[in-house]
Amino acid sequence: MERAEVALASLTAEPVTPDRLRRVLEQALVFAGAAFAGVYTPGDDPALLRLAESAGLPRTLYGLRDCYPAAGTSPVAEVHRTGQPLWLGPVELADGPDARRTPSPVAFSVAVLPLGPAGAGCLLAAGEHPGGFGTDDRSCLELIARAVAVPVPADAHDTGELPEDAFTLAMDTGRIEVGAGILRLFGIGRESFDGRVETLLGRTVPDDLPALMSVVEPDHMSIGDRELEFRILRAAGPPAWLRLRGRLLPGGGGRPARLVGTVADASTLRSDVTDVARVQRLAAALATAGTVKDVGRAVVAALRTPLHADRIALAELENDRLVVTVLDPPEPEAWPEVWRSEWRTEWPDAPVRAMPTLAAALREGRARIWPAGSVLEPALGEVGPGGLAVLPLPAGGRLAGACLIGWDSPHDFAPDERALLTASAALTGQALLRAHAFDAEHELVGMLQRTLLPRRLPRLPGAVAVARYLPTTAGLEVGGDWYDVIPLADNHVALVIGDVQGHNAGAATLMGQMRTALRAYAAEGHAPDVVVAHANRLLLDMETDLFATCAYLDVDMERGTALCVRAGHLQPVLRHPDGAAEILRTEGGPPLGVLPQAEFPMTPLRLRPGTVIALTTDGLVETHDADLDAGMDRLARELAAADPAHLGLVADALLTGAHRGDDVALLLMRYDGMAVRPLRESWTVWRVPEAARHARRFTRRTLRAWDVPQHTVDAALLVVSELVTNALVHTGGPVRLDMSLVGRRLRLAVADSCPRSPVQPTSIGWEATGGRGILLVEAVSEAWGTVPVSGGKQVWADLVADG
User: Fold this and answer.
1) Which residues is 232 bridged to in the sheet?
2) Which of 304, 310, 302, 333 is nearest to 386 (CA)?
3) Cα separations in angstroms, 186 against 167, 183, 261, 544, 788
4) How many helices (DSSP H) and strands (DSSP E) are in the chain?
5) What is the per-residue pLDDT across 634-657, written as a single tens digit (0 to 9) for each?
6) Cα(210)–Cα(411) distance, integer angstroms
7) Helix or strand or coil: residue 613?
8) pLDDT band, very low/low/confident/very high, at 156 (cuts 50, 70, 90)
9) Which of 327, 342, 537, 738 is deepest in the core (most CB within 10 A)?
């Protein structure tokens, strides 16, 4: 909790940026163990709650919608209306209205928390913890909900005085209560202020008044957040820039709808308002814009307020369609009817053929301006009845798209504005082209990342494992880090972590191939060094210049031992039951894909109950200002100080403050020891005439020592006789008989060197001399099957030893 509080305090203290909400939501993934976190707020239509921002896995994995009716029965709507949180587990969700929308039977829990009082929206988090969100997780989510919400100042009647920069405006009467700091900004004394909003609006620069009125008029402001910069007149000197952040709260319970928020001095941010400075600011913002939406936000911020425009649309040109990516304002009613008729999901998809004037401007490739009263087709005329500017966005010898800027009131275009528009168009076109390519690759690698990493970890006999993955926030959001937990035969478990060189689609693809290959080699029953050696040869055979590092641990859950193989990867870190942590000094080989004849030595480990194994990638322990050794030492210290009883919280704590310039993968396993260890015996079958009889004698002697009932012994002797005989007759090489007893379940298994599985005959005639053995095994056993074992196979059959 303390780490979460520190992280959230740091984020909320920063200036407001377009990505701050997403960064706050990411804390739910780190500290509360959520797999998805999103904010639902009312849109222009208060009857709908829309997803404003999200982080984590796609919402569709949990059957979540993009919007919900505010009057509906969904948990989002209920929390929005009541202002009371909901904590829903898998049972409650299975009975909910959206249960059928979940694409697969995923056991997950959902937390829905209000953002302040009723009607202010809500925070939704989904997690895959079997027990739902714990006490600490819930406290962390409550912190995040408070950090997401715009602070709502208390009424002056409740506290006696508002904070310095706060205000609350009653929408029915226009009465406003303001803090002393706001009155000082407007140059009004407390004694002379009459409490009317018109008194403050009268100090506003006339050109900025329409934009400010759109905020304080309830018909033009959606319930939720709004931020606006405007100018006020001063007795001496140039106008002062102020920044308003507000939230419209619906009325209820005898109280009117209220606009609440803060007003702060923004003059320091507006020290230079020349057109040259605006172009420079736009160029700086576009240089760091990673996505198409980032480009759109930068254009809106740079042009709409300086030009006093009423609407801006940024669109990409795809064949004959104008695919709009950013609209400001975003409400559909603010745009032409033909655009709304072509509405797809969130943004319109307008055909260029419906706007021949626009098509002609795009063919000319230069900025066009139409003053008020120009005769234009409705699709364009309704964008700017008081004036319209169309900016073709050139990039790389072609058109990347177009920017439309419209005014409602008649607007006179000055020469400097035309120069500003022309310069902005060239900058925006290049940025849009880069961002489109980035978005395409980002979507590809994001899809690869979601599909190639494990959705969930398996339940382990005698152990608990958790994993975390944090994508890089620099450039593309995925890379080549991966982890895996692979259940193996005889209560063995393989822990795998690796890192493919690079951060692009190629690295993500290769990561998936390596993870699949290691899983396949492990399932074949190979020893750990052979598994890694096979993966090395496979990577060398691929036509790639990339290499990969890997750490592979084969853990015997019954004996509490492990074999560790490293291929150029970081050492594992062990936390012993007494709380001491050490960085292991295991032997290692080179990275995968470097040397054809590389050797990968195995290092044995001893695990006592309570031991925690930590495997990670270098993104967690290496930064530009700290070397690898220092990072590993820090990881060991933090692991030693953690409480291993709550492994998920340990993982979250270790990720706190992780450098996000690289991917981070973390895999933790706490070895508890098996409560019930199986009884096991093995017998090497010699190829002698009496081999089957010797195997039966060994089986009878062993099962009597285990107090297995006689009728189960008789069935077991039949199974052993058939399986051993088949192995001796149809295969060559060594044959081994293995027996294990767990509770009342007896497993008989015969391993040989032939990879071909026995075929069950569909029918057997009276004259047939063979083929009945497998039918007999199936008849007397609960289940039977085959598994690969190091180049051969193992045929097994299970019996229930009833008394």
Assistant:
1) 204, 240
2) 310
3) 13, 5, 16, 65, 80
4) 23, 32
5) 999 999 999 888 898 898 888 876
6) 13
7) strand
8) very low
9) 327
Return the minimum-mean-pLDDT range out of 96-105, 235-244, 560-569: 96-105
Residue 107 CB contacts under 8 Å (≥ 6 apart), including other chains: 90, 128, 130
How far are the Cα atoms of 84, 458, 674 from residue 563, in angstroms, in the given order?
Answer: 51, 20, 18
Q: Find out whether 196 and 175 touch, Cβ atoms under 8 Å.
A: yes
Residues 6+ apart with CB under 8 A from 18: 294, 297
578's tokens: 């007494």
Compare 485 and 283 and report the one with higher pLDDT: 485
Retrieve residue 766's tokens. Answer: 């009276």
Q: What are the distances in angstroms from CA 198 to CA 210, 230, 408?
A: 13, 15, 23
Residue type, 617: T
Angstrom distances, CA of residue 401 to CA of 173, 323, 348, 601, 794? 45, 9, 14, 57, 62
Contacts of 740 (CB under 8 A, 6+ apart): 490, 678, 679, 680, 681, 746, 747, 749
Contacts of 676 (CB under 8 A, 6+ apart): 742, 743
Cα 492 to the center of its chain, rounded Å: 31
Chain centroid offset of residue 669 CA: 22
Cα–Cα distance for residue pair 87/776, rounded to 1 Å: 53
Tell me the DSSP string of 301-343. Answer: HHHHHHHT-SEEEEEEEETTEEEEEEEES--GGGS-HHHHHTB
Residue 80 CB coordination number (10 Å): 26
SS3 of residue 71 by DSSP? coil
Cα angle: 599, vertex 602, 607; to 5 degrees: 165
Q: Which residue has the higher pLDDT, 393 or 162?
A: 393
Among the listed residues 45, 37, 172, 63, the one whose alpha carbon sits nearest the alpha carbon of residue 115:
37
Instruction: State how far the Cα of 155 lies from the Cα of 374, in Å rounded to an integer.
Output: 49
- Exposed e or buried b for every residue in 22-56, given b needs 16+ CB within 10 A? ebbbbbbbbbbbbbbbbbbbbbbbeebbbbbbbbb
Helix/strand/coil for 370: strand
Say if residues 691 and 685 touch (Cβ distance below 8 Å). yes
Give per-residue pLDDT as tens, 172-226.
788 888 888 889 888 888 888 888 888 888 888 887 777 677 666 654 444 445 5
Length of the chain: 803
Show the CA angle centred on residue 232, arms to residues 228 and 234, nearest 5°.
Answer: 155
Residues 6+ apart with CB under 8 A from 714: none
Residue 129 CB neighbour total at 10 angstroms = 18
Is residue 261 within 8 A of residue 167, CB to CB? The reply is yes
Q: Could you tell me how far CA 513 lies from the centroid of its own chain?
A: 21
Question: What are the beta bridge partners of residue 215?
Answer: none
